[in-house]
């Protein structure tokens, strides 16, 4: 079981870094292995917190983000993740799945309308609407998770950020939401530590390879990759729902 968790952590974070949607691999697999749903979500949060933190070293070494951009995103997503993790027990998995499907369908429609195509901007100018969306994704990620990385990429694409910049800030947001949510899952005693550590090691390796590959991906390829991952996410969530 621990070996399987390592593999899914690797594959999930490799894909999740490039287009989000890593949760469509890790979460269902953990549930199939018999992990309780809240323990599986908690393991995801802890593993993603550490793996995205490992990306920071690469990002700041290459000066691909500034603290002026990063700090507001960290604060907003952390607050959202903390809130989501705190109220997770109030929602059923079915309700959260419906919410996820609606959000992803909306994002996919915007993509085909051309309103969420990656642009050439290299700096995020944070607007009130964007700030609210970041908190909202943080809450959703703390509650459930699958698709949150994809939704962050859509938010940044709507702001016409370059793809690599969107990936970098997406990892920043995932770190903050997962950190906030992980605190609540740890405090609630819902973490299975051996399983979580196996997932974490695979996640760190996958995220490092993913961010290296992202530097070589064109904006057009990124757009199609994002759409494919979104469709797969929606299909998987619908299958789970019914």
UniProtKB/TrEMBL annotation:
Q: What keywords is this UniProt entry annotated with?
A: Cell membrane, Membrane, Transmembrane, Transmembrane helix, Transport
Instruction: Tell me the InterPro entries matching this sequence.
Output: TM_pro_TauE-like, TSUP
Q: How does it sit in the membrane?
A: Multi-pass membrane protein
Q: Where in the cell is it found?
A: Cell membrane
TM region positions: 5-27, 70-91, 96-113, 133-156, 168-187, 193-214, 221-239
Which cellular components does GO assign to this protein?
plasma membrane
Question: What Pfam families does the database record attribute to this sequence?
Answer: TauE (PF01925)
Q: Which family does it belong to?
A: Belongs to the 4-toluene sulfonate uptake permease (TSUP) (TC 2.A.102) family.
Name the UniProt record assigns to this protein = Probable membrane transporter protein
Which species does this protein come from? Lysinibacillus odysseyi 34hs-1 = NBRC 100172
């Amino acid at each position: 079981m621990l070996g399987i968790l390592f593999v899914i952590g690797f594959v999930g974070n490799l894909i999740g870094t490039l287009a989000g949607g890593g949760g469509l691999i890790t979460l269902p697999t953990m549930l199939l292995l018999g992990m309780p749903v809240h323990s599986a979500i908690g393991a995801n949060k802890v593993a993603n917190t550490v793996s995205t933190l490992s990306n920071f070293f690469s990002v700041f070494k290459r000066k691909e983000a500034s603290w002026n951009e990063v700090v507001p995103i960290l604060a907003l997503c952390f607050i959202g993740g903390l809130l989501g993790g705190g109220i997770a027990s109030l929602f059923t998995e079915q309700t959260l799945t419906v919410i996820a499907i609606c959000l992803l369908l909306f994002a996919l429609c915007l993509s085909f309308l051309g309103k969420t195509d990656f642009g050439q901007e290299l700096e995020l100018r944070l607007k009130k609407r964007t700030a609210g969306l970041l908190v909202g994704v943080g809450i959703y990620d703390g509650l459930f998770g699958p698709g949150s990385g994809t939704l962050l990429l859509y938010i940044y694409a709507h702001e016409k950020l370059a793809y690599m910049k969107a990936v970098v800030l997406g990892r920043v947001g995932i770190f903050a939401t997962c950190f906030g949510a992980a605190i609540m899952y740890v405090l609630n005693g819902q973490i299975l530590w051996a399983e979580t550590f196996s997932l974490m090691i695979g996640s760190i390796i996958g995220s490092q390879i993913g961010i290296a590959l992202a530097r070589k991906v064109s904006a057009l390829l990124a757009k199609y990759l994002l759409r494919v991952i979104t469709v797969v996410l929606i299909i998987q969530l619908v299958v789970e729902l019914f």
